[in-house]
Design goal:
Length: 417
C-alpha cells in the first residue's frame, strides 16, 4: 500500500519542511492551507532569513505574497541573506538585533549604494561579525574609477570594528590591475576571489596576506594555474594561516611535499596530481591534519599517467587520510578501469560524500564510443563501474554523485553493499 506525502501527519510534514532550503519552502503553500500553515511554522523556527530587495528583474520572480512574514520576534535571526540592494536595507536590518552574519549578493552595483548601507551597519547591526559580499558589475566604469570605488568600499568596511570575517567575491570589474586591500586592518579571516581576472589582481592579495598579522585564516579561491604565482605563494611567510587554495597545476612530489608542510592548516584544497603515485600523494597530504574537503583533478589521456590499479600490489606504504569527509574527483579517461584501485577504503576511510565529474572519451573496457545520441543506459552501465569500488570499500559513504562533464548531467547512486 502506497502512502501519499499529503496524507502524512503534521508532525512528519513539519519535520520535512524544517529541513527544506528557504527557496523550496517558499513554494509549498500552494498545495493546501495545511501546508501553508506548516510552512509558516517552519519559517518561524529558522535563525536565518532571506530578503529579496532592489529592482533586479531576476528577484521579482519571488513576490512578497509568497515570502513568509517575519516572526513576531525578530531577535532570533542571526543570519540574513540579501539578494539585491536598496537604500532602506540598513533600516530593515536594524530590527535584527542578534544579527551576526550578513550575506549580500548584487548583480548591478550603483555607485555609492553599497557603501551607504554598510556605513549604517555599525549602529544598526553592532554584533555583525561575518560579512559575505558577492558583486557582479555590468556597468561601463573602468580603471581608476572602479579602483576608487573599491577603496571607498574597503574604508567603509573598516569602520565595522566588530567585523572579523570577510568573504569577497567579484566579477566583471574591468580595466584595473590592483585593489587596496591593505585598508582592511582588523580582520581575523579573509577569503578572496576575483572571477575573470586570473592572477592579474593577486599582487594585492599577496601583499595584504603578508602585511596583516591579525589574520588567522586566509582563503584564496582563485584558480592558481600559473607556475610563477604558485612559486610566490609557496614563499608567503604566513602560509600556515591559509585554509583554502585551488591549485590547477601538475605538482611534482618534492614541491607537493613542501607545499603541504608550509600550508599545514588547509581545510580545503584542489590539486592536479599529474604523474604522482598514490603513495607520493598520500604521504604529502597526510601532513594536512585539518583537511576536510579535497578535490583531485587527473587525466589518463596522457600516456605518462598510469591507471591507479598498477599500485594495487605495490610494496610502498600508502597513507590513510582520515580527516577527509568530502571528496571530488575531476577525471578525463578512456576506460573506467583507469580509476579503479584496491586502496580507496584505506586512503579515504572517513569520506561521507563523493562526487566524480568525468569526461569519458569512450571506454575500452566496455567497447563504448561516447557520441551524440548514445543511450543513457549504456553510458550509465559504464559509469556504474566507476562508483562500484568506492561504494564497496568506503563504508562511511552517505552520498555518491557522478557528473557528465560535457553536459553537466548529474546522477546520484544508491549506496548498496
Amino acid at each position: 500500500m502506497t502512502t501519499s506525502i499529503t496524507s502524512l501527519p503534521d508532525v512528519c510534514l513539519f519535520a520535512i519542511f524544517d529541513h527544506l532550503p528557504i527557496t523550496d519552502l517558499l513554494n509549498i503553500d500552494k498545495v493546501s492551507s495545511q501546508w501553508a500553515n506548516l510552512k509558516q511554522a517552519a519559517c518561524n523556527r529558522r535563525t536565518d532569513l532571506t530578503l529579496f530587495v532592489g529592482d533586479d528583474p531576476a528577484l521579482k520572480l519571488v513576490t512578497k505574497s509568497r515570502f513568509p512574514q517575519y516572526s513576531s520576534s525578530t531577535t532570533k535571526y542571526s543570519t540574513v541573506h540579501c539578494f539585491g540592494l536598496n537604500q532602506n536595507l540598513a533600516d530593515r536590518l536594524s530590527v535584527f538585533i542578534s544579527l551576526t552574519t550578513l550575506n549580500i549578493a548584487i548583480c548591478n552595483v550603483p555607485s555609492g549604494a553599497l557603501e551607504r548601507v554598510l556605513a549604517l551597519l555599525d549602529s544598526s547591526a553592532p554584533n555583525l561579525k561575518h560579512l559575505f559580499i558577492r558583486l557582479k558589475f555590468m556597468g561601463k566604469e573602468q580603471g581608476e574609477i572602479v579602483k576608487s570605488r573599491f577603496f571607498r568600499l574597503f574604508e567603509t568596511i573598516n569602520t565595522l570594528i566588530n567585523l572579523k570575517v570577510l568573504v569577497l567575491e567579484y566579477q566583471h570589474f574591468f580595466g584595473f590591475q590592483d585593489i587596496q586591500l591593505n585598508v582592511l586592518q582588523h580582520l581575523h579571516q579573509f577569503y578572496f576571489q576575483s572571477i575573470d581576472q586570473g592572477s592579474a589582481l593577486l599582487n594585492s592579495f599577496e601583499s595584504y596576506a603578508q602585511a596583516n598579522k591579525s589574520l588567522t585564516k586566509i582563503g584564496l579561491l582563485n584558480t592558481i594555474n600559473d607556475q610563477r604565482w604558485f612559486d610566490r605563494i609557496l614563499k608567503l611567510e604566513n602560509a600556515s594561516s591559509f585554509t583554502h587554495l585551488n591549485i590547477q597545476l601538475n605538482v611534482e612530489e618534492r614541491t607537493l611535499d613542501r607545499f603541504c608542510s608550509r600550508f599545514s592548516s588547509l581545510t580545503e584544497v584542489h590539486l592536479c596530481i599529474g604523474t604522482l603515485s598514490l603513495c607520493q600523494l598520500t604521504t604529502a597530504l597526510a601532513k594536512l591534519a585539518q583537511l576536510n574537503r579535497l578535490t583531485l583533478s587527473l587525466t589518463f589521456m596522457d600516456l605518462r599517467y598510469r591507471p591507479l590499479s598498477e599500485e594495487d600490489n605495490t610494496g610502498h606504504s600508502i597513507r590513510s587520510l582520515t580527516t577527509i569527509e568530502h571528496l571530488q574527483i575531476v577525471v578525463n579517461l578512456s576506460a573506467h578501469s583507469q580509476l579503479e584501485s584496491a586502496h580507496f577504503g584505506l586512503i579515504f576511510p572517513q569520506i561521507k560524500q563523493l562526487s566524480i565529474e568525468y569526461y569519458l572519451h569512450g571506454c575500452r573496457d566496455c567497447g563504448l564510443e561516447v557520441r551524440s545520441g548514445e543511450p543513457d543506459e549504456i553510458i550509465n552501465n559504464c559509469v556504474r563501474h566507476l562508483v562500484k569500488p568506492w561504494i564497496a570499500q568506503c563504508t562511511r559513504l552517505e552520498r555518491v554523485v557522478t557528473i557528465f562533464g560535457y553536459t553537466g548531467q548529474e546522477r546520484e547512486w544508491p549506496i548498496e553493499r
